[in-house]
């Protein structure tokens, strides 16, 4: 598997990920590769949610001449292979941590921005009539041990008190009665406006919206290098040269080694892995009292996230291998299956039918950035595995930056991603972090 920490190029010969989403999502449009040189106002590199939203916004709201290219097809990266959790937030810091770090007023601005991100996803689904099967609203953050219940109760109160957000605390028995019989959930907080959808259908819908708005979209067009040319850029792709006044890097965790060193050294590609089981029987679902298709994630350091899909399969995800080379090792999928069976009793015979993984971009300070590190060049990266809703808004914020507009006064829009110290040893650091995480989740 392509490994952006090691490979110096993402070429167009990568295979499609054999995901559940690929299997159940009809209607793929093949966007042809760019064969001839061209000039444009803005070139967006990467056609995931970030790049497509940037292209859409530049074409629709600013009437810019915008070209979006992807080394593969729209949604080939994270955007077409994620869990489909529309969450309120990004990065790894909750609002309480943001309040401690930046103060209450800024935490409130973050909260507002996160709400805007979810609203944007909803608006675009409606505007594009995107058939991405949004499920009933509701996200449960689950305490994976009794000691976390108090934290979750405080969190619900904190969200209600300071943000007027209708978070609700649930006890263990309330979870068993109204959500699902769960073996490892000692309490929960319910977030009412988050939900699950088909992420690949969303990416394809965004692509169609961007094209309809006037963006030119090319697939199978890998950018090899970006050279300064006067006030603009000369961008070399496999078959053609693009002259652009502005360049947007929307390559996030899929940015190849050395492609833009500052981004490489400040956004660590980390694998997230997913399994999708065979469908559960009605009897199994009844035994489990599985009542809602809500999305769930636990409070572990190395979190598990899961949901019941519309066709009664369970999607179950968590951290995977460290290197691309090890990603396909079945041990990681087997570990996820074991973890799933510890959560839900009576599924001893259940197997998985799909398994895949993808790279999420982790930043050093657990927060993403949308920033212009040099004139005419822009990037958004480092969502730390929580980027479905936020990347949709980040694309819009990037477009506003390109147009010279002011962004909301948030720290993530005011500085570049911090470089990791000892960045050459990040994978060793990751290894140690995983060991510590496993120990903490088990014993502390
Ligand atoms: C298994 C998994 C589960 C996840 N689950 C969730 C979830 O449930 N909820 C959530 O909020 N987030 C989730 N995430 C994270 C979320 O998917 C990402 O944050 C989001 O999709 C990032 O979008 P993006 O557009 O920034 O990047 P991507 O979608 O990764 O797009 C980057 C694109 O850049 C292209 N590219 C790279 N280099 C070049 C080049 N040189 N030339 C041309 N193109 C190039 C790639 O082909 C790729 O398509 C998950 C991620 C994974 C991997």
Structure description:
By secondary structure, this protein is α/β, with parallel strands linked by helices. It has 2 domains: 288 residues, FAD/NAD(P)-binding domain; 154 residues, D-Amino Acid Oxidase, Chain A, domain 2 (2-Layer Sandwich). Helices cover 32% and strands 23% of the residues. The strands form 3 sheets. Strands 1, 2, 8, 9, 10, 11, 17 and 18 form an 8-stranded mixed β-sheet that branches. The chain has an 8-stranded mixed β-sheet with strand order 5-6-4-13-14-15-12-16, with helices on both faces. Helix 2 runs parallel beside helix 7 and helix 4 packs across helix 11. The longest helix is centred in the N-terminal third of the chain and has 24 residues. It is globular. The mean pLDDT is 96. Bound molecules: flavin-adenine dinucleotide (FAD). Flavin-adenine dinucleotide binds next to helix 2, strand 12, strand 16 and helix 11. InterPro entries: FAD-dep_OxRdtase (IPR006076), FAD/NAD-bd_sf (IPR036188). Keywords: Oxidoreductase. GO terms for molecular function: oxidoreductase activity. This is FAD-dependent oxidoreductase.
């Amino acid at each position: 598997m392509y490994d952006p920490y090691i490979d110096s190029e993402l070429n167009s010969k990568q295979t499609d990920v054999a995901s559940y989403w690929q299997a159940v999502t009809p209607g793929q449009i093949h966007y042809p590769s760019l064969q001839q040189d061209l000039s444009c106002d803005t070139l967006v590199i990467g056609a995931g949610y970030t790049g497509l939203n940037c292209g859409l916004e530049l074409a629709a709201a600013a009437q810019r001449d915008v070209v979006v290219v992807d080394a593969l097809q729209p949604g080939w990266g994270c955007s077409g292979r994620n869990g489909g959790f529309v969450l309120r937030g990004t990065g790894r810091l909750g609002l309480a941590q943001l309040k401690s770090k930046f103060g209450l007023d800024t935490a409130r601005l973050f909260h507002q921005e996160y709400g805007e991100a979810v609203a944007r996803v909803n608006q675009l689904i409606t505007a594009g009539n995107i058939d991405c099967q949004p499920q009933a609203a509701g996200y449960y953050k689950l305490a994976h041990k009794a000691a976390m219940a108090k934290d979750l109760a405080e969190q619900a109160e904190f969200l209600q008190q300071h943000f007027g957000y209708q978070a609700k605390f649930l006890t263990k028995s309330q979870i068993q009665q109204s959500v699902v019989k769960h073996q490892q959930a000692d309490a929960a907080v319910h977030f009412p406006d988050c939900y699950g959808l088909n992420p690949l259908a969303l990416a394809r819908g965004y692509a169609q919206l961007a094209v309809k708005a006037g963006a030119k979209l090319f697939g199978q067009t890998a950018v090899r290098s970006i050279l300064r040319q006067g006030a603009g850029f000369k961008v070399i792709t496999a078959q053609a040269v693009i002259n652009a006044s502005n360049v947007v890097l929307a390559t996030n965790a899929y940015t190849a080694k050395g492609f833009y060193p500052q981004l490489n050294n400040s956004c660590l590609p980390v694998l997230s892995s997913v399994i999708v089981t065979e469908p559960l029987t009605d009897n199994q679902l009844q035994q489990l009292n599985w009542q809602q298709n809500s999305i769930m994630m636990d409070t572990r350091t190395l979190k598990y996230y899961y949901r019941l899909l519309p066709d009664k399969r369970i999607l179950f995800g968590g951290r995977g291998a460290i290197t691309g080379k090890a990603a396909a090792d079945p041990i990681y999928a087997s570990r996820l299956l074991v973890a799933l069976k510890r959560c839900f009793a009576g599924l001893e015979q259940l197997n998985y039918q799909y398994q895949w993984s993808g790279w999420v971009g982790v930043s050093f300070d657990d927060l993403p950035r949308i920033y212009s590190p040099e004139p005419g060049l822009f990037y958004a990266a480092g969502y730390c595995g929580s980027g479905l809703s936020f990347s949709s808004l980040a694309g819009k914020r990037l477009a506003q930056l390109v147009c010279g507009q002011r962004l909301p006064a948030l720290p993530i829009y005011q500085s570049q991603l911090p470089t990791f110290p000892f960045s050459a040893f990040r994978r060793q650091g990751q290894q140690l972090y995983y060991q510590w995480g496993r120990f903490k989740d088990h014993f502390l």
